[in-house]
Amino acid sequence: MQFSLKTGLLSLAGGAFLFVSAAFLTRELAVENEVEFVFITATPRPQQAAPTLIPTQVIPTPIAALPTDSLTPTDHLITDTPQPPTLTPTVSPTSTATHTPEPLHLVMITSEVGAFLRGGPGVDYEVVGEALPGSVYKALAYQNRDENRWYLVELPTGETGWVSALVALPAEGTQPEAIALAATMPPTPLPTSTVTPTSTSTPPLEADAYVSYERDKLRLRSAPNNEAEVLTLLAELTPLTLRARTQDNVWYNVMTANGREGWVMSQFVTVNLSLDGVPIIQPTPTAYRPNVNDCISVVGDSMPYGHIIYKIPGYGFSTVRATPFSVVLANQLGAAGRSLTVLDRTVPASLLWDNGRIPYRKSPEYAMLLNDRCRFTVVVPFLNDLSVGEDRPDAVGAHMTDLTTLVQTLNQVNPDGEILILGFYYGTPAEFVWSYAKGYTVESVNLFNQRLFEACAPGGTLGVFGNVTCAPIENVLWAVGNGAFAGEAQEETVRASLYEPLPADGLPLFEEYWMLHPDDPIIGDGIHLSEQGKITLAQFVITQLVAINPDW
Is 255 helix (H, G, I), strand (E, B) or coil? Predict the structure, then answer.
């Protein structure tokens, strides 16, 4: 059986043809399975009684109009938008002094502990930065030296550095041989390594002190505070000469074997001598001006983007774009007498998981986020990460790792910005969402929230960042009841909420239904927020931002 979109003819077995009206046709392409589904209904079917709701499952991805109200969508789709993802166009990198690579090439840091970025292609060059594990950078060039390959990469800040192929590999879709070959750079060894040699088997007992930070490289700063410039990174067991300390013993002034002087946090240093003989220095207080832009970046998936999935009884499904959360937040800021630009950095149907169908951190919006340097970044929960299912064991732990990596990267490019992370919530899911989002259950939402707020507690993986605040929102939304969520809606309500026109493929379904059933509602997914829900959440976010920093 085949259907022609040009003629409207349905080819049946035996050579017969049937003309089908476009008003009763919904056609979607399930990209993930590469299977095309075409469902046709000759006339709208009467509605059936809705089954009793059982609070287990998640955000849907409706894929076609069905002949009855009984739903049999595929189980494997986790995205909450029925349209296939829009392909991101390849962008050519900015030309550099050594080459102009075309097209864009990327390398990913594969080491579990990250990697050093150096001023040249070799370990005898000074360390100029640090790359987080799993980070992806634009590859500008490469050079082979001493049986090892080195990649010249560009950071989101525009700075460049060299990273070894031992800890970085070309990202998927990038051909190593296609990356431009840089002109040979003669090695210019430093008098001694800027970063003290890697850890030895035993601590250097003859030194005043040594680095005892096992999780990562220790930052040597220009002043005794977390906002001060990072001068270099110190490996575990690096020997140090202890020169001074702050009165509260939180910071030590030290010197490395190659004469580099700076400040380190005392909790990451083991001292081999009495502090009684170490002089106390009271650093001169200086006025610190945060290097941020007067804006708010909103990060998230389909909910803050504004998507709502509607079931049109007897006809099918359609996804509409209602008012984005960023627009609602901007309006509420104005009503509160606050003036910050709100930037929408959301991606519909995305996941924080880099191997997901639409990975957020591989999107153009993420690249723009890293350049925003906003005063505040608001991270709305990625609900799709609840439903990765068997594809990702320990989904909650993996999600927390991804979230921590996001925060680390934001702190690298915008150390003066504040980050507000919102908790997960359980809405009023319609019965049709359960086949698409098996992970959207009360139990799953509670588990993700538990792990999130454990991580945000002092000493947790997120709590160690002084600029991160986590806030639960479930009770805030439920304070206004079911009206916080996009449930049943009349035509007037749907049209009033639209940010974009009704989609072309769904427009005939909406119009036919509303013409024949002017008093009957269509059914929202109950996961995405209603206009009232977004207003309530925006007002709550503003109170949180004021509590974090009232001086804006």
Answer: strand
What are the residues whose beta carbons fall under 8 Å from the beta carbon of 411, sequence distance 6 or more? 465, 467
List phi, psi (to 5°) of 474: -60, -50
What is the β-pairing status of strands 437-441 and 56-58? antiparallel
In CATH terms, the fold of domain 106-178 is SH3 type barrels. (2.30.30)
> Minimal CA–CA distance to 511: which of 22, 8, 18?
22
Q: Identify whether the C-beta of residue 340 lies closer than 8 Å to the C-beta of residue 375.
A: yes
Query: Class of the 209-220+233-277 domain?
Result: mainly beta
Domain boundaries, the chain: 106-178, 209-220+233-277, 293-304+321-492+522-548
Radius of gyration of the chain (CA): 28
Topology agreement, domain 106-178 and domain 209-220+233-277 = yes
Q: Say yes or no to pLDDT of 59 above 60.
A: no
Q: Which of 5-19, 268-282, 355-369 has the highest mean pLDDT?
A: 355-369
As given in the structure block, the two tokens for residue 406 are 């996001």
Query: CB atoms < 10 A from the CB of 207, how many?
Result: 19
Residues 98-108: tens digit of each pLDDT: 444 344 577 77
Q: What is the per-residue pLDDT across 32-46, written as a single tens digit (0 to 9) for each?
A: 332 333 333 333 434
pTM tops 0.70, yes or no: no
> Would you say 103 and 112 are in contact if contact means Cβ atoms under 8 Å apart?
no
Cβ count near 233 (within 10 Å): 20
Question: Which class in CATH covers the domain with range 293-304+321-492+522-548?
Answer: alpha beta
Q: How many CB atoms lie within 10 A of CB 195?
A: 22
Determine the average pLDDT of the residues in 49-63: 37
Please, what sign has the CA dihedral across residues 65, 67, 71, 76? negative
User: pLDDT at position 138, please?
Assistant: 84
| CB of 78 closer than 8 Å to CB of 31 | no
pLDDT at position 371 over 50? yes
Q: Report whether 125 contacts 190 (CB < 8 A).
A: yes
Q: Which of 68-77, 324-333, 348-357 has the lowest mean pLDDT?
A: 68-77
Q: From the CB of residue 518, how many other CB atoms can be counted at a distance below 10 Å?
A: 9
